Amino acid sequence: MAGQADQLNTPGSGRGLLDVYGDRFLLKLLVRKEIKVRYRGSVLGLLWSYVKPLVQFLIYYVALGIFLNLQRGTPNYAIYLFAGIVLVNFFTESLSNATRSIVDNRDLIRKIYLPRELFPVATVWVSAAHFFPQLVVLVGACLLVGWTPTVFQLLAIILVFLMVAVLATGLGLLFGAMNVYFRDSENIVDMIVMVVTWASPVLYVWSMVERVMGPWFWVYQLNPMTVAVEVFHWSFWEPTLNTDQAVAQAIPPDLFGLWLPVAMIITLGILFLGQLTFRRLAVHFAQEL
């Protein structure tokens, strides 16, 4: 009996995200459940992964590319625009759903104990399942206009995707835990989602921001999503360009020597803060829900 007592854990305690890896089977079940619930009664199902970003792309392209004529100074503006949209959509969808994940699964949390981190992590995986079909469309469009990436550009795509997934997980843990106690957290996240598309060079080129901000351009570069979108443009858009001048303007200075490492450090810091906050607040989730 003494040996069994030594193996008992304090309710609500655990190893955080390490427990998610140990409970991979539960994670798969939650991902399947999220997808089934989201598309229950839907005619198109996962095809919405194509429809929503396509409509969003068309609206931005017509409004900005044609009406405001941004395509004149940006070769292959359609590729530039869509490359940014698919990455930002992955982040915003992951963050929004992770913020609501604990509250939305209140019935399950009140009944049994399982690593609470499973819920926000599962929503990021679901968002990844929506991201990959869009990525296939992006790759196909790039190939049509002569996309010839290097090995480093392909590796950069994987690295940036992982960085954005970690960033969304960290913020999802932070706001998901806070949302249990303060439902205003959802409104804060809604504002972040609204701002992030414009706070990153998705609809415009980074040089426009540099001209306006001048020596304060480094503040703009501190946003990890800004750096992530710039790397995505370097990986997808830059190989489709023909003129040396356009290639030279594709990415800002010191993107890989300075800003990408800084973005990764900030992302890991946010993940640490999110996990720390989540673990401290998760003990009383069941009571608060």
TrEMBL record:
Any one cellular-component term (Gene Ontology): ATP-binding cassette (ABC) transporter complex
Keyword Repeat set for record: no
Naturally occurring in which organism (per UniProt): Arthrobacter oryzae
Parts of the chain that traverse the membrane: 50-70, 77-98, 118-147, 154-182, 188-206, 256-274
Protein name: Transport permease protein
InterPro entries assigned: ABC2_TM (IPR013525), ABC2_TM_bact-type (IPR047817), ABC_2_transport (IPR000412)
Keyword Transmembrane: yes
Example GO BP: response to antibiotic
Main location: membrane
Family according to the record: Belongs to the ABC-2 integral membrane protein family.
Topology in membrane: Multi-pass membrane protein
Molecular function GO terms recorded: ABC-type transporter activity
Domain ABC transmembrane type-2 as annotated: residue spans: 44-281
Keywords: Antibiotic resistance, Cell inner membrane, Cell membrane, Membrane, Transmembrane, Transmembrane helix, Transport
Pfam families in alphabetical order: ABC2_membrane
Top-level division of the source organism's lineage: Bacteria
Location in the cell: Cell inner membrane; Cell membrane
